[in-house]
Amino acid sequence: MTRPTERSQVHEEPRPSTRRAAGSPSIARHGRLKTGNVWKTIAKVVASTVAVVLVSGTAVAAYAAWDLANTVQPTVKLESEKVLEGVPDIGAIDGGVNLLVIGSDSRQNQGDGFGDPDEETAVLNDVTMLLHISQDHSHVEVISFPRDMLVSVPGTCTDPEDPSDTLSAMSSTKINSVLSYGGMDCVVKTVSNLLGIEIPVAGVVQFNGVAALSEAVGGVDVCVAEPIEDEYTGTFLEAGTHTLSGIPALQFLRTRHGVGDGSDLGRISNQQVFLSALARKLQSDGTLGDPGKLYSIAKAALGNMQLSNELANPTTMISIAKAMKDVDLSKIAFIQYPTAYVEGGGAVEPTWQAEAVNEALQQDIPVVLPTEQNEDFGSATDPNAAPVAEAPAEEAPVEEAPVEEAPAEGTEAAPAPTGEALLNGVSGQTAADVRCSAGRTLDDQ
Length: 445
Description:
Layout: H1 35-69, E1 97-104, E2 125-133, E3 140-145, E4 150-153, E5 158-159, E6 162-166, E7 170-174, H2 178-195, E8 201-205, H3 207-216, E9 220-224, E10 228-230, E11 235-237, E12 240-244, H4 247-254, H5 264-284, H6 291-304, E13 305-307, H7 314-322, E14 332-336, E15 339-341, E16 348-350, H8 353-363, E17 367-368, E18 379-381, E19 421-422, E20 428-430, E21 435-437
Parallel strand pairs: 1-8, 3-14, 17-19
Antiparallel strand pairs: 1-2, 2-3, 4-7, 5-6, 8-13, 9-12, 10-11, 14-20, 15-16, 18-21
């Protein structure tokens, strides 16, 4: 039986008090001070100044920590959760990361701009997306799962409102119904079983959260090849480049009727246009190496997402972001999980190519996407993109065989992943590919 969950996300922003710092002690203008008194006075001034600086710095750091801590929404404990090891100075996180991002269509606490929450009570995870960062931080894969994909739900999920109640296993269930059935942890378990990997961190975001996060990064420039017209989401964009932030960014990510073939598969391709542009922006403007910018993004995430316990730690969140700072854009792949329509339509199921995606994630090896993509989906080649010049052929350098060190006594050397996974017939793009949204007008709907 489906058990919809309702979560309250009422948040009141703390307002710091404004105080004027006390003035430093001044040396008397009139009268003559003894030499010893002069030096004592100067010493007091210097000491007072240093004290003010130290206290102010500590206060700012304390406020930042308090501000983030008081921004956090109620968290969820994942059964697969484990403590991720971060660097003390909030550098890049050690090792790899598997993070599940879940987009909920719940209208609860979202205002009146998305329909009546009392009438539209469904809680569907219409977006389910895995972020995989390799152990050596050399490549990143972002896997999008179609909302109508049929999956098996394990019999280890529990009722979010009553954790002592274990829910029944299900088969051939649309993935977008799992959040309503068993909450965030159940979605994590379902995707983990599907891929054969552990997923220790996750987060759920609603409409307003997407808008807030797009504002926190300063908007994203997206290319539109043909006009987008979607009366359902209110998305109307002319052909050209648009900087999207807030609600317009949310509308762009939600539109289905206005892109590609009008299907959810087309919407995923359109979302990948946005995400690849976002990746390029975060690297080009130095956001991933800027503590101030990362703080702003972390605050937006903490205040607008329901996070698993470990991800709700601001240090963890920032260290995960820093792990992607130096990844080559061509090694950041946005992949649509391979599926095909079942007989009669209305749902899709994983194809044989899905196993290649699973193995690439399990073995932690980079993927290579086909250069030719289906233009009927939600993205198209940029008509204004300059052709990429071919680099002149170079003689391959002679490489010396690496010297292998014996593992420490009592330990076994972990086999290093080798090669790449060629995903023939799989839709997607890299962050280096500048693609445009394949718009769809009302006349074509």
